[in-house]
Structures are given as C-alpha cells and as structure tokens.
Amino acid sequence: MRDILVLTGRSKDYQFISDIANSPPKAYCVRQAHDLETAKEMHTATPFDMIIADIELLVTGNRSKQFNLLKEPFLDANPFVQLIVLCDGTDTTRAMKAVEQGAAGYLVSPVQAKEFQMLILSASRTRLRDFELDYLRDRFWKTEWLDIIRSRNPGMKKIFDNVRSVAPTVATVLLLGETGTGKGTLARLIHWHSERYEKPFIAIHCGAIPENLIESELFGHEKGSFTGAERKKPGRFEMAEGGTLFLDEIGTISPSTQIKLLQVLQDGSFTRVGGESVLKADVRIIAATNAKLEDLVKKGEFRKDLYYRLNIFPIEIPPLKDRLEDLDYLIQVFLKKLDVKYGKGIQKINDAVLKSLKRYDWPGNIRELENILERAYILERTKELTPAGFPLEMLLSFDDNVDQSCEGMMTLAQARQHAVDTFEISYLRALLAQTNGKINAAAQSAGITPRQLNRLLTRHGLDKKEFKSRQDI
C-alpha cells in the first residue's frame, strides 16, 4: 500500500486520481489537500510516499523559487517522497523544468488512466532503486556478501574490519587457520571488495597438484619443455592478469617453486617452464595455509624470505568451536542454500539437535557443518532437522551418560539407539511440559499424530499426567 497526497484545488482531477488508484487491485490510499500549507502539515503528521501537486499551488508566491527548494519541506519528513507535478496542457514547459530539478514526473490535466499507471510504475521502480542505493551508499560491503560478514564473535568482527582495510590495497594477504574454516571464502571476499573485482579471481590448491607439475600450473610451460608438453600453455599467473591469484595450502610447494614465487613477489617477473622470455605479472597474491609456516621455516622446509614476503598482512581465522555464537546463524544460512538446491522447505532445526551441535567439537569446522547439514536435509522427511539424519558422534552429545555406556562394549547399533532414546525422552518431557500434558497440542507441535505420540510415551514410560498443571487436574 502506498500513501498518495493530491495537492490540488481541482476536485475533478483529485476524484479521477482517487478512482484510478482505488480500482482493483487496490494498492493506494489517496488523500487531498487544497493548499500548500495544509499539504505540509498533513505530510509532516503522516508522511506520504508520493505527492501529486498542482504546479500552480506548489509555486504560489514562489514563482522564482527553484523546484528542488520547494521539495525540501516534504523531504524533511520523508527523504524518499516522490513529487509528481500536475499541470494543464499549456504549462508543460514549467512541468518539464520541474522534472529537471528533481520532480519524479508530471501529469497533464485531465489525467488519463494509462498515463497515470505508467508514471506510477516508473516512479515505483525509481523509488526501489533509491532504497537500494541508500542502503549501499557509504557501505563497503556488496549486497551479495552481507550474509557472509554477519557475526556475533568479536574475533570474526575484527577479521572483517581487517578485510575492509586491506581489500582496497594491493598488499599480499596470508590467511591462516585450520582446514574448513573458510579461507577460500575469505579470499573471495577480499577480491570482490578490491579494485580488481572486475578482473579474474584464479584459485589453485597447491597441495592437490603433483610436485613435478606445480611450476607448470603456476607459471605455464613452452611446447616441448617436458614429456607431454605438446603445446604452449599459460599458467595461473597469466590467467589472473590484473586480478587476484589465490594460492591455497601454500606450505606444500617445493623449494624450486618457492624460489620462482619469491621472484614474482619481489619484482613481478617470471618465466614459463622451458622458456627464456621474462614475463610480467600484474597479480594480487592471497595465500592460505593450515600449517605453521614459522615451524616449516625453522625446519628448513620453507624459505624465510618467502615467508616474510607472504606475511605482510596475516589474518588468522578461528575454528568453528571458538565461534559457536555464530552457529545458529550459520545453520540458517546453509538451510536457505539447501532449500534453494533441494526445495524441501526445511527452514529450522530441532532445539535438542541444535544443543548437541553446540556441544560438538567440529574438527572439520564450517565445511563439516555444511556437509553434515546437507546430509541431514536430504534424509529428513519432516519440516525440521531431527536426530535421525545426524552422525552417531553428534547424537552421543545429547547426554554425557551415553559416552559412559559406550565404554561398556556397546555395538554401534545399540549406541545409536541409546542416543535416539535419550533424545526422545528429553524432547517429549520438554514438549509435554510446554503443553501441560495435552496430547493433541503436543502432537501438533511435534508434527505427528496423537496416536504416534501415545506410542512414544508408552515406549519410554512417560505419563502425561505428570505434566498437567494443577488447574487442569
């Protein structure tokens, strides 16, 4: 619903605009003001989205005043208000001048329905664009990355502050952290908020490429430079020209490759494998590793001078277990992605499951969380993620006693069933307490039938009477 104020003394025009605006589908609320001061008072009291003003009433006593100055009293109450000029056929010149000075458009009296609808549609699009621009104005982060940078963890907030500082520069960045903490995502975040965002972002996992091929992958090779080199091939440095090269697991590269990489970082030059021509590289380097490069330097496995060149702006990403205050939000982000991918409409996770996830150690970090949620999403048959789709080690975290039971030579199937039973008892107790032991209400909340709920209560020896309040007994 959009609120429109019509500033005009011509009742015929007001009535016509009101009739058009209120025709199905009704999307507008239209009111009338007969003079400029009344319009200002009405707009100040309850700001309108749009003001359609008779140009004669708008400029009465202010014929020499610029239209954009006449807008100011209305903008004070609503900076996004749109002013449409209403004029007769002999005054279109002044109306067009008003548009040049900030009016959203003009209408000619008598107003035509089609003309009005087209102008409203155009103004609505302009207003939406203004909202988006205002949201992004003076903001560093691009809209598509806003979900990524949300965090309640002080350490992550500091990291995003550092990214904001370093991204616009050409400084080399070294991302440190355990496997699965999101180093690749952070590298892309830096690139897309740099001056090079329109240029390529090229990533290479150094540890996944055989040692005898890593130089060729990075720097390219000439035809015949080694067995199998049947043609000249450009390397990743050439592919990333003008953009960003992300070197993941940099600690795995060989000593010879370290030397060539050091040369690039020092003077921006390199040669292809088997080549003699010196090539120039205009590339921003972001490197990442889960290893302690200082320890590799001490062992002589990583060049000290290369380490110093890479360590200009280090950013260490904490493991997931140290930022569990973000777990709820991360789960929601992943569930949205999974819903787009699979379309099952699962948008929440059972409270008891969430509690167990917060007690889990997350050795695989965010990557493990994403993979586990995807598996559970695929297996789930209800509208929320339940224990059935999660691994045993997470189910065991429902109750510390289960771990002790497992020490008594339980089989895997027995341990899993014990964990599920423990969860169901805890869940049913909380559910019955919440609904005062009312079976129908509890079954509806659980998404099962009353008959199924009664079977579960019988299986676990639970009596609904224990949970009824005294006033219900």
What's the layout of helices and strands?
Elements: E1 2-7, H1 11-21, E2 28-33, H2 36-45, E3 50-54, H3 55-58, H4 67-70, H5 72-77, E4 82-88, H6 92-100, E5 105-109, H7 113-136, H8 154-166, E6 173-176, H9 183-192, E7 201-205, H10 211-219, H11 236-239, E8 244-248, H12 255-267, E9 269-270, E10 279-280, E11 284-289, H13 293-298, H14 304-310, E12 313-316, H15 327-342, E13 348-349, H16 351-359, H17 365-379, E14 384-385, H18 392-395, H19 400-406, H20 412-434, H21 439-446, H22 450-459
Parallel strand pairs: 1-2, 1-3, 3-4, 4-5, 6-11, 6-12, 7-8, 8-11, 13-14
Antiparallel strand pairs: 9-10
Q: Approximately how much helix is present in the residues?
A: 40-55%
Major beta sheet, strand line-up: 2-1-3-4-5
Rg, nearest Å: 33 Å
* Uncertain parts: 398-409
Count of DSSP H/I helices: 22
Distance between the termini: 49 Å
Q: What is the overall shape?
A: flat
- Name the beta content range: 5-15%
Report the structural category.
alpha/beta
pLDDT averaged over residues: 83
Q: How many strands in all?
A: 14
Major sheet: size, sense and barrel closure? Answer: 5 strands, parallel
